[in-house]
Write a structure and sequence with these properties.
heterodimer; A: Rossmann fold; 6-stranded mixed sheet; 4-stranded antiparallel sheet; B: 2 domains; flat
Chain lengths: 259, 281
């Protein structure tokens, strides 16, 4: 079982012109893999993620997830967005329990699961707080607990830690790796941060812009388990970052020109 | 705030202990409130004193009456039961008009908010009727429904309807697509979407609509009473004015002001509870 991306492309019409947001992509994401989509903005990495999530229809090709073609919201995945997707009128615990509630899990079992998740992200003391009363980092942790609570086999994450400060970002990356190592979930992680992609992923898919397309795929051969705090001081980490920078550079500089 | 390896910050919000600093702040807050109350009472007393002084000395009491006469009249109404008689009638019309208008406004606002096509078709009509001063409908309603309570309820309901309708309509359309997608991916169908996202999200808007329309419901009822009625605070005011009884006119206005302020204060409290999830201001 795996996620098969078969010739998926996305075009849309803008001001009477057809724009290619994503040139045809084919790839296989095996079960339990940690894959990062890396690239500048406008390169189609979030577009592909949304197509895998079933939130955006592909213009061509198809996504097959565990043998089933994705058409409409993909319920095999948990999706953590860049923007806050917590429901503001629900407390932290009610947000964490949302997926369980929607899937009809009995109340007592759901309550136990919510406790477990809040412990996992270390927010037991904030269960009755509303999102507006939590800090940005806490909200991210609630969002993480929310997607983990109903135990989807695959996590799609769209720059989930993009808005956090550098330290908090490391802490969240650490938590994510720990959870991934313990659960064996498949993770697709969209980012524009080279160091983040190298520190977390087994494989980095590099996207480039105009038109959005996959320009390179690099395997990250750093040993597991990784320590996100120290891995960046390894020579191999630096090498991989350089390789990825070389792959991204033409695009980045072109973007500079355009701006 | 220190961040440890395990990823946990010392959470300053978690602890709720009453430290000396917290107690000092609470005491300061108490003193501030007392001072505020004092200032408010002082202004009221000064205004009443000025009014009392001006009456008969600077201005003919025929026009402005005087506080002592107004309170005497109020007291008379309270003791002879006419306050309860008239006020209950006005409040009953207000409550009925509010309920009818709010229910209809919510239902139709929700329906149009969910149906893009229908909303686009009827949009110019809604705008046209919205721009109409609703008070101008009062004579028509009196003709249709007579001078009984029905015409007051109708005036009040039609004003409330538009306020609640527009807010519900906006609220239903203001739903964040990120929330909709999140619920759909987690396995929610359209019924779950309605109950867990659309209604709670629209609730803030709907509540705002309800809140602003309560005073208007009162206005509708009072205007209806002033035009034609034999009961109610509106009737009392227009009748007193017609008989050049300024004290009674002012007494009626005082009753309306007190009722309006009381309703507003109650709504503010209710709003604080219902919308407690909103960012603390």
């Amino acid at each position: 079982m795996a996620i098969l991306v078969e010739g998926v492309a996305k075009r849309y019409i803008s001001r009477g012109r057809e724009v290619e947001a994503l040139a045809p992509v084919t790839m296989t994401i095996e079960d339990g893999a940690f894959v990062a989509f890396l690239g500048p903005s406008g390169c189609g990495k979030s577009t592909l993620l949304n197509i895998i999530a079933g939130l955006l229809p592909a213009s061509a090709g198809r996504v097959v997830h565990d043998g089933a073609v994705v058409s409409g919201p993909n319920r095999r995945v948990g999706y953590m967005t860049q923007v806050d997707s917590l429901l503001p009128w629900r407390t932290a615990e009610a947000n964490v329990g949302l997926g369980l509630e929607l899937q009809g899990v009995p109340k007592d079992r759901a309550a136990a699961r919510i406790d477990e998740m809040l412990r996992l992200v270390k927010l037991e003391g904030f269960r009755r707080h509303f999102p507006a009363e939590l800090s940005g980092g806490m909200r991210k942790r609630v969002a993480l607990a929310q997607v983990l609570a109903y135990d989807p086999g695959t996590l799609l994450m769209d720059e989930p830690f993009g808005a956090l400060d550098a330290q908090l970002k490391l802490v969240m990356q650490h938590e994510l790796l720990r959870i991934w190592e313990n659960t064996g979930k498949t993770v697709i992680f969209v980012t524009h941060d080279i160091a983040e992609a190298v520190a977390l992923a087994d494989r980095v898919v590099v996207f480039s812009a105009r038109p959005g397309r996959v320009s390179a795929v690099h395997e990250i051969d750093l040993p597991r388990p990784r320590d996100v705090f120290r891995v960046r001081f390894q020579p191999r980490f630096q090498e991989l970052c350089e390789t990825l920078w070389a792959a991204l550079e033409p695009d980045m500089l072109r973007q500079e020109d355009a701006a | 705030m220190s961040v440890t390896r395990a990823g946990i910050a010392d959470d300053p919000l978690a602890a709720g202990e009453a430290t000396p600093a917290a107690r000092a702040q609470a005491a300061a807050e108490g003193r501030r409130r007392l001072a505020l109350l004092g200032a408010r009472v002082a202004i009221g007393v000064i205004l009443l004193a000025c009014w009392q002084f001006a009456s008969g000395r600077l201005v003919d009491p025929f026009f402005i009456s005087a506080p002592d006469a107004v309170f005497a009249r109020l007291w008379q109404w309270i003791t002879d039961g006419s306050l309860v008689f008239h006020l209950s009638y006005t409040l009953y019309a207000t409550a009925l008009g509010f309920t009818v208008g709010a229910l209809a406004g919510f239902a139709i606002g929700f329906l149009l908010g969910r149906s893009e096509a229908l909303a686009t078709v009827v949009d110019p009509y809604i705008t046209a009727i919205y721009c109409l001063p609703k008070i101008a409908l009062a004579p028509l309603f009196i003709m249709w429904f007579g001078i009984g309570i029905e015409s007051k309820v109708a005036v009040s309901a039609v004003i409330v309807f538009f306020l609640v309708f527009l807010n519900t309509f906006a609220g239903v359309r203001d739903v964040n697509p990120v929330h909709v997608n999140a619920v759909r991916i987690m396995g929610g169908g359209s019924w779950a979407l309605l109950r867990k996202v659309i209604l709670p999200s629209a609730a803030a808007w709907v509540f705002t609509g309800l809140k602003v329309s309560v005073p208007y419901a009162l206005i509708g009822a009072v205007v209806g009473e002033m035009m034609s009625s034999n009961r109610g605070i509106g009737f009392l005011i227009s009748q007193s004015t017609a008989m050049f009884d300024t004290a009674s006119t002012f007494a009626g206005l005082v009753v309306l002001a007190v009722v309006g302020a009381t309703i507003n204060a109650a709504l503010k409290r209710l709003e604080r509870h219902v919308l407690r999830w909103r960012a603390p201001a």
